[in-house]
């Protein structure tokens, strides 16, 4: 494995000087989210929001693309926050839609099955024991297993399996492989866990540069499985660090450490987290690529910051009480959340509204730039719930 540099957090006092979030702040933020979700349900009915907003409003869509699971996840989180049966009833209708989707293989031939089925169906099964949700999630896990390439030991992101132009992993899949760990736990079948662990190890070995920044994607030779090199698809350049990719690593390492408990991964977590924290701008919400700074006239990606907060909160319990970085991470996560709450949640439309503004879906294609996006909404609410109670994660 590449030796990864653990750089110290620069100017730690900018985090430590800020008080931790109060329960009043958390409760007020959750109440604002619930009001928006109730509003969106009236607009959406049983449809789903599009992946990102246009002119600050989501469009209703069918259960397609890789993001719809986040809407159902929001409904389950709202149900946990309120115990309001309206949220549960709509979420369970969504579960039926996800079962139909996997049964008929509608837009599921890719690595994003965890994004689709963990927040929508694993959550439903954990919260209510819904057997349809369990069956759908296990089918999704089986489908994800078909993306595994033994040569290189990774789950292929996109494209026909084994094709040279698509023979690569992406860091986003760090949030998809927990579906396989869950499937192994539910069925007792070790093959799910084995594939997840191999993909995770391959990602850590090749997708993290020596300075602890992230490659978005990493290619392998389809004939031999030998590593070829890292490229970007969403980031600014091959040698920059796409902010959301860095946060997928932060949260992904925390989630997979929960299952595998390899202590060496704690240092890796610290390295990728410190890299992220050291490149936050003045308001502590990341630009869409970590190469950018205040004054560069680039868009923020609030979703990357929300994801990073979830990762820090997940890893918090595994850090020793005497670890000097533990209080720093606690204050940093709290400060980032406070900035999101205060500066990134203003109501901007009477239509289907984002919970979190100022994200970036795909800068190169001009899609969802300085707009809300569904995963940002989900991870923002997940982070709030993590602050509210001892949350039993869906992942």
UniProtKB/TrEMBL annotation:
<comment type="similarity">
    <text>Belongs to the glycosyl hydrolase 88 family.</text>
</comment>
<keyword id="KW-0378">Hydrolase</keyword>
<dbReference type="InterPro" id="IPR012341">
    <property type="entry name" value="6hp_glycosidase-like_sf"/>
</dbReference>
<dbReference type="Pfam" id="PF07470">
    <property type="entry name" value="Glyco_hydro_88"/>
</dbReference>
<dbReference type="InterPro" id="IPR052369">
    <property type="entry name" value="UG_Glycosaminoglycan_Hydrolase"/>
</dbReference>
<protein>
    <submittedName>
        <fullName>Glycoside hydrolase family 88 protein</fullName>
    </submittedName>
</protein>
<dbReference type="InterPro" id="IPR008928">
    <property type="entry name" value="6-hairpin_glycosidase_sf"/>
</dbReference>
<dbReference type="GO" id="GO:0016787">
    <property type="term" value="F:hydrolase activity"/>
</dbReference>
<dbReference type="InterPro" id="IPR010905">
    <property type="entry name" value="Glyco_hydro_88"/>
</dbReference>
């Amino acid at each position: 494995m590449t030796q990864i540099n653990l750089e110290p957090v620069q100017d730690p006092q900018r985090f430590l000087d800020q008080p931790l979030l109060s329960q009043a702040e958390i409760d007020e933020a959750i109440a604002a989210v619930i009001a928006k979700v109730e509003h969106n349900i009236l607009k959406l009915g049983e449809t789903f929001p599009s992946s990102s907003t246009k002119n600050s409003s989501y469009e209703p869509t069918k259960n397609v693309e890789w993001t719809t699971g986040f809407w159902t996840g929001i409904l389950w989180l709202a149900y946990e926050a309120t115990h309001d049966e309206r949220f549960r009833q709509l979420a369970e209708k969504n579960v039926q839609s996800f079962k139909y989707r996997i049964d008929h293989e509608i837009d599921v031939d890719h690595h994003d099955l965890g994004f689709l089925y963990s927040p929508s169906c694993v959550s439903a099964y954990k919260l209510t024991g819904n057997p349809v949700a369990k069956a759908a999630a296990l089918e999704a896990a089986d489908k994800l297993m078909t993306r595994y390439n033994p040569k290189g030991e990774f789950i292929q992101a996109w494209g026909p399996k084994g094709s040279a132009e698509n023979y690569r992993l992406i860091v986003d899949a760090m949030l998809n492989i927990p579906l396989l760990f869950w499937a192994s736990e539910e069925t007792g079948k070790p093959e799910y866990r084995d594939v997840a662990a191999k993909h995770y190890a391959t990602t850590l070995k090749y997708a993290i540069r020596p300075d602890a920044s992230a490659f978005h994607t990493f290619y392998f030779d389809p004939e031999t499985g030998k590593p070829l090199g890292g490229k970007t698809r969403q980031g600014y350049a091959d040698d920059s660090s796409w902010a959301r990719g860095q946060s997928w690593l932060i949260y992904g390492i925390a989630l997979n450490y929960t299952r595998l408990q390899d202590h060496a991964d704690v240092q890796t977590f610290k390295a990728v987290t410190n890299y992220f924290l050291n490149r936050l701008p003045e308001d502590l919400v990341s630009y869409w690529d970590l190469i950018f700074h205040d004054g560069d006239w680039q868009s923020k990606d609030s979703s990357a910051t929300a994801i990073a907060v979830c990762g820090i909160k997940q890893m918090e319990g595994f850090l020793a009480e005497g670890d000097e970085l533990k209080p720093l991470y606690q204050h940093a996560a709290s400060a980032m959340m406070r900035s999101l709450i205060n500066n990134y949640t203003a109501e901007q439309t009477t239509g289907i509204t984002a919970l979190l503004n100022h994200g970036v879906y795909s800068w190169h294609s001009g899609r969802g730039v300085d707009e809300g996006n569904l995963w940002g909404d989900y991870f923002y609410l997940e982070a709030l719930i993590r602050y509210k109670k001892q949350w039993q994660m869906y992942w």
